[in-house]
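Mods, move this if it's the wrong board.
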Amino acid sequence: MNSKTKDCLSKTYRDWLWVILVLAAFLGGYSTYFILEHHSSSPEPATQSVQHHEKPKIELQTVPQSVQHHEKPKIELQTASQRRIDVPLLTPWLAPIVWDGTFDEDILNEQFQGRNITIGVTIFAIKKYVIFLKLFLETAEKHFMVGYKVNYYVFTDRPNDVPKIPLQEGRKIITLVVQNYSRWQDISMHRMEMISNYCHQLFFKDVDYLVCLDVDMKFNDHVGVEMLSDLVGTLHPGFYGASRETFTYERRPKSQAYIPRGKGDYYYMGGFFGGKVQQVYKLTKACHEAMLIDKSNRIEAVWHDESHLNKYLFLHKPTKVLPPEYMWDKQLLGWPAFLRKMRMLAVPKNHAKIRNK
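Not the wrong board. Structure tokens:
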């Protein structure tokens, strides 16, 4: 028998073997998949091994019939303390909403601690609002960015009333003396102007991230690097879960803060926003310029700088959104089940006695 005939018989043998094996797979009570391994006792090419009549070895492996053709990857289920199915975790543009139980604090700290970052915090303690400064700073030292360098920028017209409190290593209070205004609305709206101006004077060279907070709040739990991103907005606790038709956006087309009905994503809190300094500069500059246009048109947005903030974040989507646990009012809203932590709390106060004093 010549070699050509041998090759033809060998090929016929392999073809019939495959037919038998495939039939066996269909007729069996379980699914079978095949791994065909060609072994050669010498380093010669595969054509040579066929001439020596080496038969391919076939390994049969069985898998349960319940697994049909494709083996699914194994997924480790999170523990009940980590899993969140009761709250939205992503915005429609896929920015994370950072609830408790959605991040690992230790992993994040490993990522950030080697970067030698400094976080700036702007606080406006003008007129009688300076009375809230001590509690704000003392609780921040317990809960805010612990282990990181922090610059507290205190904007005030009463520098002598800025308290001296012990600070962690690498943290400092910088007092910036500013003008006060007769109306609290003007004070609120001029925050955007002051922050944008000081970006050039201080923030660009001194800090990596800038967080803009209301002073009449206290830290109640951990607030750390999980909140850092390019541009960050915070969901207003009073509107969480509400229809956007109820949001108190500016509805007058004459205003630069105008958002039409049926539009908008969330209602954001004016007392907690931030991000990288360049992004905060763009936000505050745009809001300040919009308010100047409104002023020239003799209109004032319904919620002043907060209305303009909402318009800006509608047009320029934040890259991270903080849930209401980062800014909560327990006195007004209680403690609902979805709120596992209250990271910052509003300090009870009489607005009428504090404002315009």
